[in-house]
Amino acid sequence: MKLLKAKKIVLASLAAVVVALVSGCQDVIYWNIRKEVTLKDANIKSDIRSIIRFKDQFYCANGNIYRKSNTSNSYGTWSKTGAPSGQVLKLAADKDYIYALVGISKDSSKDGENIPVRRELWCSSDGSSWSKVTAVYGSGDIAYSSSSRTYLFGTNAIKEANRSAYFILIGGAPGNRAYKLSGATAVGVLDWSTTNADTKPTTSSQSCVYVGSAVRFFNSTGSCTNESSSGGDATIYYYGDGSTLRWGGAKTGSVGAKAGILSLGVTKDYILVGTSSGITHHPLTAEGVPGSRASNMPYNAEATLSAQYNILSILVVNPEKNETETAIYASQNYTGNGSNSAQFDHICMWAYYPERREWNRD
Asked: Using alpha carbons only, what angle is made at residue 61 by residues 280 and 152, rounded to the nearest 5 degrees?
């Protein structure tokens, strides 16, 4: 009798776990049904690893390149533009040029899979016609190696004068090199630092910001400042350090985040934190200091950008406004085969527009 009772307890426990997993995995569906949110078709699908500012437009890449006016913050206004041949992996921009890191592959004769061959770096002054950046190692052609890494990133500042872009090559035949980009031919080679958040890059730097008349580099893809679109200069910079949110400048400190930080975006009242386990936010004081993670985000943010996904990039259009009063863009993907209930058609651009009061596919 005791054995039978124990078996019943185990079976009941397993059933409870299954129910919890299923219900947790269907948060997006159930939330949207309850709130009558009809998900729109995604206009930009697949991985989007950067959403950037160039001149008076926003750009993103998912293999191709899309753009929209920075004043056209409504559904359906992204349009495909010219791009270099190959798979556009990442974008960055300075005041005068936009840059694209492109992957070139070939088909395997054995199993039909694509095999990486090289990376190429391209630039454009208008976002449509492209030229190879010949001043980096290999005249813009960087042979692919499993032992090498390439990083393209920029300050993505609101003010055009504060925008700069960088390309870092680690390992492989050329060794370690860091470049400040300036069109196709004029490239400055940077010295190295060993300190995260320094004014020189480290061999792990993957993002940067402009603050206090200097550029700071971070060993994380997630960083931003409190610069505003109404003209206010940045006084504080924020960056991810594993699962810790740190800040420096006029104020310094740190606070724990939900998971590993991949992207950041600031509004007047909250800092949005894109992690390897969905999106969260932390309240900001009047001085821009983050508090502990808030339990709930407004509307359906945590249902659509949920724990099953990596939040790759965030762009806040008007950081001087409250979180619910500004347009915000975000992109996500998931690792694995989707067996954790992540949905392939949610790998795309997402947007929050104040007039519709919901997060939806864009």
From this structure: 85
Prediction pTM value: 0.90
- Taking the CA of residue 21 as centre, how many other CA atoms within 13 Å lie in the half-sphere pointing to its CB? 10
Tokens of 86: 């190959």
Which residues are CB-neighbours of 152 under 8 A, at least 6 positions away? 89, 90, 91, 92, 99, 100, 101, 121, 165, 166, 167, 168
Q: Round to whole Å and give the CA distance between 84 and 98.
A: 12
| Residue in this structure with the two tokens 């099953």, named with its chain if needed | 308
Q: In what order do the strands lie in the sheet with 177-180?
A: 149-154, 165-170, 177-180, 188-189
Residues 291 and 302 sit within 8 Å (Cβ to Cβ): no
Q: What are the CA-CA distances from residue 336 to residues 107, 172, 344 (Å)?
A: 23, 28, 11
Condensed to tens digits (0 to 9), the pLDDT of residues 229-277 reads 988 899 999 999 999 999 999 999 999 999 999 999 999 999 999 999 9
**CA 134/CA 83 separation, integer angstroms:** 17
